[in-house]
Amino acid sequence: MTVLDICAAPGAKTTYLAQLMPNQGVIYSLDYSKRRMHVWRQEVGRMWVNIAEPVIGDARNPLPFNVDADVVILDPPCTSTGVFAKLLQLNGDLHPSLLKKWRRFNG
Fold first, then answer.
1. Among candidates 32, 76, 69, 73, which has minimal Cα distance to 54?
2. C-alpha atoms less than 13 angstroms from C-alpha of 71 in its C-beta half-sphere
3. Which end is more exposed in the chain, N or C (fewer Cβ atoms within 10 Å of the end residue's Cβ)?
4. CB–CB of 26/2 below 8 Å?
5. Are strands 2-6 and 71-74 parallel, antiparallel or unpaired?
6. Cα separation of 29 and 54, whole Å?
7. Strand 2-6's sheet: what is its strand order?
8. Could you give the angle at which helices 34-46 and 12-20 cross, rounded to 10 degrees?
9. Cβ atoms within 10 A of the Cβ of 23, count?
10. How confident is the model at residue 103 (pLDDT cuts 50, 70, 90)?
11. Distances (CA, A) of 107 to 25, 37, 100, 101, 104
């Protein structure tokens, strides 16, 4: 089985998929962030995954390689609305610019 894991870092999905696949087949893990893929490499190594291949690239553009995947998993970054309260705690107050940005994402 060939799996394409898009927005793969920090690696939880990749390692879980490898466990479901008993480390057989191949998982191409794509993420745009070199920093986050460094964390991905650590996690994949820690979990003894040997079927995952890291790919640094932006999923908004054509992939930097051709693959005939059986499964494609996409877990895109969110708008951070789930951490809105934490952002307020960090900032200490509610700025109009923050409200405008949040409203833009939430219609």
1. 32
2. 13
3. C
4. yes
5. parallel
6. 5
7. 52-56, 26-31, 2-6, 71-74
8. 40
9. 14
10. low
11. 41, 32, 10, 10, 6
Q: Enter the tokens of residue 25.
A: 């087949």
Identify residue 40 by its one-letter amino acid code.
W
pLDDT surpassing 70 at residue 2 = yes
Nearest to 1 by CA among 31, 30, 21, 28: 21
- Residues 7-39 have pLDDT tens digits of 999 999 999 999 999 999 999 999 999 999 999
Q: Which residues contact 57 (CB under 8 A, 6 or more apart)?
A: 30, 31, 32, 63, 64
| DSSP per-residue codes, 5-62 | EES-TTSHHHHHHHHHTTT-SEEEEEES-HHHHHHHHHHHHHTT--SEEEEE--TTS-
Q: Residues 11, 29: contact at Cβ < 8 Å?
A: yes
